[in-house]
């Protein structure tokens, strides 16, 4: 048993999650991969083909689609919200830029449970439009799922295409990620890992997006909603470790993954988290120029361009409840071990 396998099996024993899957590798593919546990407590054993709710790891995948549109000239990073969404032109978000949305410097607050008072897609989107800014744009990194909801709307308005179609055409299809989807169909739902026994829905959630705001939006959002199996996440990790191969031109990818918030409290690239020197979710073993993203359900993807290494971790740490913070230590220990040299997987 590899060190990663042992570490993640221990996480299950500590009831941090019922199941976990992982892959660590580089530009040529996986070096260490596997899975442990069950789809739910008392459920079927994992076999490696399960579908995982990526949660906020959706954000950088949507970000890759947005950067592909920038590369094609459909959008620019300095385009404003008001330029693409007429309903925003008379409000406080009219002059916010795509760059500010991507770097979480728009001033739009995040983690707002709008679903509680806005049970329809139209009313929730209107609530996002009216949500007051809580920081001056460009002055603070303030994580905002609502900002990425707006970003998804901009991408749709600029192209006339639904967000799920854009993500497929610009990101998942080029990499062969055949099972990475919003709104899994019945066959894919049957292979999904359980998330929360949701108080709001009154039932366990399996194969339906965990994020409640995304539920109201119909399962598709710029901030959450994608599901993927381990193999597809390996394809993405390998492409990122190879400098965005198959996704973006080298200069576009370099721009996307560079730090854009120097002088502010948190290090952010375009749709990616940067490596913060203090309280990084992945610890300190990955280099200072590394980037990635975490997801509330217990998922993460991290890449170190200096070593051309990626690390994928997929868990259901919100099963059966979101209470508990055991994933914090597990995730840091995983990335510390993942940064060490390893032989290629057989």
UniProtKB/TrEMBL annotation:
One of the entry's Gene Ontology molecular-function terms is: hydrolase activity
Stored Gene3D superfamilies: DD-peptidase/beta-lactamase superfamily
Q: Which UniProt keywords apply?
A: Hydrolase
Pfam families given in the database record: Beta-lactamase (PF00144)
Is Hydrolase included in the keywords of this UniProt record? yes
Q: Where is the signal peptide?
A: none
Going by the entry's taxonomy, the superkingdom of the source organism is recorded as: Bacteria
Residue ranges annotated for the Beta-lactamase-related domain, each copy included = 5-327
This one is known as Serine hydrolase domain-containing protein
Q: Which organism is it from?
A: Streptomyces lannensis
């Amino acid at each position: 048993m590899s060190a990663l396998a042992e570490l993640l099996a221990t996480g299950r024993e500590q009831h941090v999650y019922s199941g976990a899957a992982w892959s660590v590798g580089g530009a040529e593919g996986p070096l260490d991969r596997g899975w442990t546990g069950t789809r739910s407590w008392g459920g079927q054993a994992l076999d490696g083909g399960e579908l995982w709710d990526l949660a906020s790891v959706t954000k950088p995948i949507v970000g890759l689609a947005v950067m592909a549109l920038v590369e094609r000239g459909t959008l620019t990073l300095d385009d404003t919200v008001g330029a693409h969404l007429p309903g925003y032109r008379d409000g406080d978000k009219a002059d916010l830029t795509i760059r500010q949305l991507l770097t979480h410097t728009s001033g739009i607050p995040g983690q707002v449970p709008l679903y509680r008072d806005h049970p329809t897609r139209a009313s929730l989107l209107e609530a996002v439009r009216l949500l007051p800014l809580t920081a001056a744009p460009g002055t603070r990194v303030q994580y905002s799922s609502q900002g990425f909801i707006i970003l998804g709307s901009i991408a749709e308005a600029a192209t006339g295409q639904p967000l799920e179609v854009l993500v497929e055409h610009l990101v998942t299809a080029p990499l062969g990620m055949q099972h990475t989807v919003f709104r899994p169909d019945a066959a894919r739902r049957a292979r999904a890992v359980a998330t929360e026994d949701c108080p709001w829905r009154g039932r366990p959630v399996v194969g339906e997006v965990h994020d409640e705001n995304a539920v109201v939006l119909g399962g598709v959002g710029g901030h959450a909603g994608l599901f993927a199996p381990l193999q597809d996440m390996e394809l993405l990790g390998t492409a990122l470790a190879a400098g965005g191969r198959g996704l973006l031109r080298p200069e576009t990818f370099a721009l996307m993954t560079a730090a854009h918030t120097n002088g502010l409290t948190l290090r952010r690239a375009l749709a990616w988290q940067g490596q913060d020197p203090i309280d990084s979710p992945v610890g300190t073993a990955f280099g200072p120029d590394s980037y990635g993203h975490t997801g509330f359900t217990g998922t993460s993807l991290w890449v170190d361009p200096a070593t051309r290494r990626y690390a994928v971790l997929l868990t259901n740490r919100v099963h059966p409840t979101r209470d508990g913070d055991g994933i914090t230590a597990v995730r840091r220990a995983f990335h510390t071990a993942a940064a060490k040299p390893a032989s290629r997987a057989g």
